[in-house]
């Protein structure tokens, strides 16, 4: 069964700092990869997704992620964070060999941006 | 375009009771997935319905059951509630066409079991 690891449980940064959140998954087959964000009091929203092609994907609000197949990683990056980026971030994987769209999520990373 | 909606927003039940949670899919979507998100955890896949048939199930006991209706709305039923069932229950819908599908999440139903 697939699993997802997010090693950073809580990250605290100052505004304008650069961000990188780690995500590793365990599954040897073809995967679709996602980053979701959950702002305080709001529902899960898609930040970006990787299906195929260019391993560097760009999402909303200046976020990007790089899929490194050899490392089973899909790290999220942003060059300069803003206070409004304070939220919970979830990495998720869909293993394509099971015939459904089951998403396996990591435990999440809580990001706090200090003004 | 109407997004995914869920009802009720909050619910309080006692141990042993039964509960039904409801979800309306985003317009045009034919697949619904249900997830349980315990406090401080990521969402855990419960099951998925595609065109009214169960299409995959996570590691949840049979007292968790579901339905999908012809209009693609869905229900999650939980029998014999336990304290550990207290969680945020999320519904997500998607349009299944090929293998590259994106799920859109609703706001969730917060269930508290006393």
Estimate the helix proportion of chain A, in percent.
under 10%
Tell me the total number of β-strands of chain A.
Answer: 12
The greatest interface here is: A-B, 27 and 28 residues
What is the structural class of chain B?
A: mainly beta
Order of helices and strands of chain A: EEEEEEEEEEEE
Q: How does this structure look, described?
A:
The complex is a heterodimer of chains A (115) and B (114). By secondary structure, chain A is mainly β. In chain A, 0% of the residues lie in helices and 51% in strands. In chain B, strands 2, 4, 5, 6, 9, 10 and 11 form a seven-stranded mixed β-sheet that branches. Chain B has a four-stranded antiparallel β-sheet with strand order 1-3-8-7, with no helix packed on it. Chain B is globular. Chain B contains no helices and eleven strands. The relative contact order of chain B is 0.33. Helix content of chain B is 0%, strand content 50%. Chain A binds chain B through residues 4, 6, 32, 34, 36, 42-46, 49, 51-52, 90, 92, 96, 98-108, and chain B through 31, 33, 35, 40-45, 48, 50, 55-56, 58, 90, 92, 94, 96, 99-108.
Briefly summarize what is shown:
The complex is a heterodimer of chains A (115) and B (114). Chain A has 115 residues and is mainly β.
Keywords:
heterodimer; A: 115 residues; mainly beta; six-stranded mixed sheet; four-stranded antiparallel sheet; 0% helix; globular; B: 114 residues; seven-stranded mixed sheet
Itemize the secondary structure elements and their pairings.
The complex is a heterodimer of chains A (115) and B (114).
Chain A: E1 3-5, E2 10-14, E3 19-21, E4 24-26, E5 31-38, E6 45-50, E7 56-58, E8 64-68, E9 73-78, E10 87-95, E11 104-105, E12 109-114
Parallel strand pairs in A: 2-12
Antiparallel strand pairs in A: 1-4, 3-9, 5-6, 5-10, 7-8, 8-9, 10-11, 10-12
Chain B: E1 5-7, E2 10-13, E3 19-24, E4 31-37, E5 44-50, E6 53-57, E7 64-68, E8 74-78, E9 87-94, E10 104-105, E11 109-113
Parallel strand pairs in B: 2-11
Antiparallel strand pairs in B: 1-3, 3-8, 4-5, 4-9, 5-6, 7-8, 9-10, 9-11
């Amino acid at each position: 069964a697939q699993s997802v690891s997010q090693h950073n449980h809580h990250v605290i940064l100052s505004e304008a700092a650069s961000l990188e959140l780690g995500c590793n998954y365990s599954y040897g087959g073809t995967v679709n990869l996602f980053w979701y964000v959950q702002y305080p009091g709001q529902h899960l929203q898609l930040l970006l997704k990787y299906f195929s092609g260019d391993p560097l994907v760009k999402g909303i609000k200046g976020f990007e992620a790089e899929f490194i197949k050899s490392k089973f990683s899909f790290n999220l990056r942003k060059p300069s964070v803003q206070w409004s980026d304070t939220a919970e971030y979830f990495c998720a994987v869909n293993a394509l060999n099971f015939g459904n769209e089951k998403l396996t999520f990591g435990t999440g990373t809580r990001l706090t941006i200090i003004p | 375009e109407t997004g995914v909606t869920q009802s009720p927003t909050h619910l309080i039940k006692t141990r042993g009771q039964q509960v039904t949670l409801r979800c309306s899919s985003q317009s045009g979507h034919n697949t619904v997935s249900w997830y349980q998100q315990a406090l401080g955890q990521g969402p855990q896949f419960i099951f998925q319905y595609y065109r009214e048939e169960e299409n995959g199930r996570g590691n949840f006991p049979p007292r968790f059951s579901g339905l999908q209706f012809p209009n693609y709305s869905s229900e999650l039923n939980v029998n014999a509630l336990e304290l550990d069932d207290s969680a945020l229950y999320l519904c997500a819908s998607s349009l299944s066409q090929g293998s590259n599908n994106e799920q859109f999440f609703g706001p969730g139903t917060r269930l508290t079991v006393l």
